[in-house]
Every structure is written in C-alpha cells, then in structure tokens.
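## Example record

The block below lists the input lines for one assembly entry, exactly as stored, with component labels intact.
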Amino acid sequence: MNINREVESLAEPDEAALEIVYSGRPRGRRWVPHAFLATPVGVLLTFFAGPLIVLAMYSFQERGRSGDGSFTLSNYRAAVEPSILEVAGSTFLIATLSMLVLLALAYPLAYIIAMKVGKWEIPLLLALALSDELNPLIRIFGWRTILARNGLVNSTLDWIGLIDKPMDWLLFTKFSVVLVLTASWMPYAVIPLYAAMKTIDPRVVEASSDLGAGWFTTFRTVVFPLTATGFVATMVIVFIPIVSDFAAPGLVGGTSGRMLASVIEDLFTRRGEWGVGSALTFLLLVVSGFVVYLSHRIANIKNLDTST
Amino acid sequence: MIDHAALELINITKRFGSIVAVDSISLRVEQGEFFSLLGPSGCGKSTTLRMIAGFETPSSGQLYLDGQEGSELPPFRRSTNLVFQSYALFPHLSVRDNVAYGPKRARKSKRDIARLVEDALRTVKMMEYADRLPKALSGGQRQRVALARGIVNRPAVLLLDEPLGALDLKLRREMQIELKQIQREVGICFVYVTHDQEEALTLSDRIAVMNGGRIEQLGTPEEIYRHPRTRFCADFIGEANLIEVTVDQVDSGRPLQVVLPGGESMRVLSHSCDGFVEAGESATLVVRPQHLILQPDRSVHAEMAGLKVRMDNSIFQGSVVRSELSGVDGLRLSALSVDSAQVNPVGGHPQWATWSIHNCHLVANKERRTKP
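Predicted structure tokens for the full assembly:
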C-alpha cells in the first residue's frame, strides 16, 4: 500500500531533512541566546539563590543573630524536637487534606467551566482570577467573621433554631485552616486544570458517548486519562504553597491548627532563633522537594491502563 | 427480511433561538443504502446528522432508527455511530483500543471483542497498525481507524460527517472508491454528509440536496443531474449553464414553449414545473456544458435551439476544450467539446451555441413549497 509506505517515512523523519532544518541558523553567533538568558539567570541568582545561601549559612552556625561562624548541627537538632515534629505532622495532615478537598472541588469546577458553560466561560475565569486579587489578610478576616463563635454561621443556625449553643469547632481548629486554605488556593487549582481540560477535543468526548459510554465511563476512560498529567501538576502547584502557608494557620488556626510556616515565622520574628528557623526552612524545602519528585515520577508513568 | 427503514425522519425541525437550522425535513433511508446529505455550508446537513446521532434534540418531528422512535435517546443509547470530520480518535489509546472502545461498552466478551476488532481493522486494511497511537498515523490512516471504529459495532446507521474533507484530492479519490466497497461489504446503511457534489454523485445510491434548512430534491444521482427540481439543484449538482427564458405557452400549468434571450422560441420537453407556471413568467433553462454545440452559422433544425454568442476564451484541458462564451444581456455560458477542431477562434465572428431540445431542462424561478 503506497499510503502506508508514505507514513512509514513520516514516522521516521528524514535525517538529511533534519540536518537542513537545524543547520539553518547562522553560525558564529551562538553566544546571542546565552546573552538573553543572562538577565533572568542573574535575577534568579541574586534574589532566590542568594537568600537561600544566606539561610544555609545561618542554619549551620551557632545560635544568635550574627553567629560566630563556628559550624554546628545543633540548629537541626532543635528543628526536629518533639514539639516541632508534632506541628510538622499536623502541617502535612492539613496540607494533604486541603489539597485533596481542593482537587475534589476544583476538578469538577474546571470541567464545568471548560466544557459546559458556553459564553460564561471567560467571565467565570475572570471572576476566579479576581477572587485572588483580594488581599489575603482581608479575605481571612472575612472568614473569621463567618466562623466565629458569634459569627454568621453560628448566629444563622441559632436563629433558625438548629443549634442552641454556638459550635466551637468552626474557628481556630484544623477544620478552619483546611477550609480557608482550600478557598484561598482555589484559583491556583482551577486554572491549570481548566487548561488541561481545554486541550481535550470536545469531539473526542462526543465520540465516547457515540460509542456507547455514559458520562461516568466517558469521564473514567477519556477525560481523566487525558488530564492526568495536568492533575498531578496541579497537585504540586497547590501543595507547595499550602504546606508553606502561614497567613491562614496564623489567623484562623489557633493552637490546634498550627503549621510549620507559622512556627518558622515565630522563630524569626519573635524568638530571634534565626539558626533554628533556617534549619527548619531547609527541612521543609527538602520534604517538599521530595513530594514534587514523587509527583513527577507518578506523572511520568506511561501507558496508564485505561483501556478497560 | 427486515421491512422497516434503517432511518426515517418525519417533519424534523431544529431551531436555535430564532434561527431555523433545519426546516421540517422528511426522509426515509433504506437498509444497506448509501445515502448522502449534500449542500453548501450552513444548509443544515450537519445539524441533521447531529440530530440523528443524538447530539442535538429536534425541536419538533419524529425520528425512527431501525423502526424505533428515538429522537429523545442520548447518543450512547442509539444504534448509530458517527465518523467525525476531524476523526476524533482517542489520542491516549492505541488503534486497537480505539476500535475496541465500542464493543467494550457493549460488554462483549474478551474473545468477541478481539475478533470484532480484528475484523474491522482487516476491513479497513489497518491490522498491521493495531498497536500504534493515533499520532503516529497519517490523515488517511486515521480516517481508516475512525471508519473501523464506526463499523465495529454494526450500527443500524453509520453517519459520516465529511469524512474525506481533510484528505488531499488523490487520496480522497482512492478513499471514495474504497468507502463504497466497504459499505457494500459490511452492508450497513451509510448516511454521508458532504458539500462536494462530485463525491456525492460518485458514492451515493440516493442524495438529498439541502439548501436553507430544507431538502430541495431527493433522488438518485442521475435523476438529480438530469432532472433538477430547482435552479439551486441544477447549479449545485454538476456544472450548468442557466439561461433565463420566458414561458410562452402553458397547458394547465405545464410549460409547452419558452422564448430564449435571442427571441427564438423553443419547445419544452423536460421540465420540473408541473401545474406550477403561468405564461409570461420567467423560468430558467438548464443546459449542461457538454451539450452545447458551437457552430459558425445557425443551421435551422426543429430539434435544435440556439443562442448567438461571442467566444471569449478557449482553454485546452486535455481530453476536452472548454469555451467561455458571452451572449446578450451579460449572459455567460461555458461549453465543453471533445473535438477541438469544432471550436472556432477566440474573438472571431459571432457564432451560435446550439443544443438539442432533448438535452435541456426547465426549472421554475419562483420558490416551490410543495414536497419533493
């Protein structure tokens, strides 16, 4: 079959043709692209790597703001003492829960915006982006007025007569932290998921329906596999900021909803323990990095078995 | 044998807001038939197809699939399958799994699925590509996979939405022939949407010519080509010279004689204006380019009609010579002649374009509201 042969040659690109394509740019100006890279690399080194190096130095120095320069691991030992490990445990619990709730809500929301709302698509996306423009402190204080002992929820339920005394678990608990974190990071989950959904050809979804699949089967065998990579990427995108958030636990967390970032903040700003704060920052960075690496591995698993 | 139609539409209408996309169409497609919906873009053919597939719900009317009312059924409960213009293969599944998708949803056994998929892939000659992903295939091969995916479930009706539209001309011609063979082989009723009249003529047992949401004519390719019902059909199916004439003599609504632009009278033998036209009104005479004969002088012959024309251009096209002619009142004609010796030089003396009164067809100019 000549058609088939034609495609064989398409699948294996002609080496000579590629040679022409890649040797097409003028020789002798190879430094130009590197020069363009210099600016962003410089900015990154100065404002990102620089502070990290300073932090690293603090984390290995003796106690005290200035440090006397002698090497020590005591900061790291202080960073893994039981009280901090307990906060670390609740941090990862809160962050994981928040991430799961967030994805469970953001995924269908992104699906609806991408596939179902027609002309409301752009207005909804803008509304979502705008909701993030609000100052986080104001937004979190808003939540406090809603969740407080005499806040909106309790007073409303009391007025209806569903409760006779205010519910105390609404604010300054893990619940309130998960709720506020979920709400705060919603746009950051919906937008990448929306982008992943938009890459799906709507005809492919129609084809699934045409071939006998109901909506759930279509979701399971077509929509989800085609957005799996975007899904894992979104997990990483939201997990990192959530695990290092200090505004939400600081303002609605109370004692039971404390998270590592607020401990670090405390170490730096109130207790003057820059060394321990730096050590803890690094530990958090390493664990987060490991989470990203794991997600990357998961996303790279090819041939997800979706054929059944 | 089954005696009900594979597909029947009765007064199907589809409105989008105030726009009527499909205007009360009725048609009946028999088992094993190759049926085409032909028309320009925006004529309602794709909307009709999407209503048959279940992606749109008719605003009114009934739709029967294999004898069962089905206008409200969702796509996944219908005995139809659709071959999309863009193929819409599942990008994450191999060719084999793409084709197996339908049988799996029908909960067939593993062995049956394997056998059905293999049959379908063999039918479209794609068995050796079974383990490839769609992105490693050419357009023509994706087309074949889409076709295999459509026929594997043995639907009552296979719907094809301009399936060859994205292929180049040579490949399209090859696929046309093969598509027709495959259709005969599997015996499934095909409903084929296209805007390409040549494709529709080549493939179809019957064609519905659509325009403005309505069916202008429904018939075999030959019927439509030889006896177009309307000016639109005449113009859309095949190349046509459309000559404005005046109806001269009428016998109870049937035209007997017309006056040509040059003032000559012509007897009408073939027309689609029964009981419909009145003397004095204008109508359109359809003469196919290959039926125009160019002559230096008007030879008087009762069976021949003619117009005085000037030769503007003459193009040698290999097997034929195409002549561009202009007549009175800005009338433009083209003629195809097999014998180049017959064609006279460009810009020469005015000459005559003549045709046999057996080789022309009269259609009315006013709109016709009766059923085809």
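Chain A has two domains: 16-59, 78-303. The interface with chain B takes residues 1, 3-4, 6-7, 10-11, 201, 203-204, 206-214, 217, 221-222, 225-226, 304, 306-308 of chain A (CB under 8 Å).
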